[in-house]
Amino acid sequence: MNNFSYQEKIIFWAALWLRITVLGVLLWVSGEAGITGYGDAPQYVSVANNLVQGNGFTEGPYPDVLESKRPPGYPAYLAFFLKTGFPLWAAAVLQIIMSSFTPILAMRLARLIGLGNNAELLVGMLTASEPMHIFYSVPLLSDSLAALLFIWGVYHLVRFWEERGATHLFLSAGILGIMNYIRPIGIYLYLLLPLAILVGGIVLDRKQWKNHAYSAIVFGTLFFLILTPWMFRNYVRFGAFDFTSAIGQHLYVYSAAAVRGAAEGTTWKEMKQRLLSEIEPVLPEPRNISHFANRHMLRDRAKEIISAYPQEYLKLYLFSLQSFLIAGDYHELLAFHNIMDEPKGTRSFPMIFASKSISESIAAVKAFSREPYWLIAILGRVWWGGIFLLSNFGAWWLWRHTPSSRFAVLIYVFFLFYLALVTTHLVSGIVGRQRLFIHPLYFIFMAAGAGAIFNWLRHRF
User: Fold this and answer.
1) What are phi and psi of 15, to 5 degrees?
2) pTM of the entire structure?
């Protein structure tokens, strides 16, 4: 840590202390289940156990069917600890240590685009202390490590633009490509980011646009080459040159189930079970809904359902997009740890709003606000909505007043566009941790916006 500034050291140790404290509480209250029982953690542990036992890359109930939905990085990480005899809480400790560097990278990215010391410190404090960032660094989930790699890759991409150094271009493509082996949140960034580099060259540096076009091709090619080993494995095993089979499953059990549930006035979970019971008898062997062999049937069925209810789909998409951008997980975390009760028999915000008029939706929000669980959910959206608006204002202000930061602003806008595209096939089941990777960018541009407002007020009054 010799290269760390004093501020960075304080932020790192604060982030580490907060996360270790949460880990200690979880282990004390629930034992190992505190880190292996939340979200997708049981599935990751199941795959890791099968790897150690020599069953290959498979998951629990289908020991003879190779896994095709999840990439190998995170299960292999857990398998290392299981194979060497270390307890799984040791994997959580190492994960916490690594994720505690995320605030430091966010601070350095803020410095790189020209923010001052106060704004840089604010970015570090927010990234280190935000509850979702703290909690999701602790259970055996891949989100926090993917977020670390994401902000690291973005840092090198922006640094490449600032310094025109090929090394940073290679590092960015390599880090962001490897990130997808931990969590496949950016498998199409090999198309999106080269486009951002090309647009940046045309808009921001027109005289050198050909050089930027060459850089875009190099970036996209290297990124794609990093993905190809796993895609080739899927081609050999399943006949599909693709990175993950999850997209067909998501379309059917998230988008189609949510749309039909909204149209028929039932919950997403109930409709999900109905759709699964309808499709499973006609699936080809193996009857594993996430298998590549079933992706075409799932996509076709999902498209039929979505096409039958276009109005419900549009409403769900718009509400799910705002959930993706501004929802918090605080109420779900409190309910999971039995700090408060989750009301039974209620539907999610998007499901309710998709099946009601505007006046009925407003009445539903008022009714929700009487329940502590939903009140915290609403306040979480208000909080993150304010952060999102302020970050967008900060991005606009930097574009207008700090030309050197414009490429970073462009990257931010492209990532928001990417989230909008992702939401088109995932209009239910969206939770705040799925956008954990972009939070540091929120905080960076929010700090810029807050600084601009503070300076205006200081000169005004």
Assistant:
1) -60, -45
2) 0.91
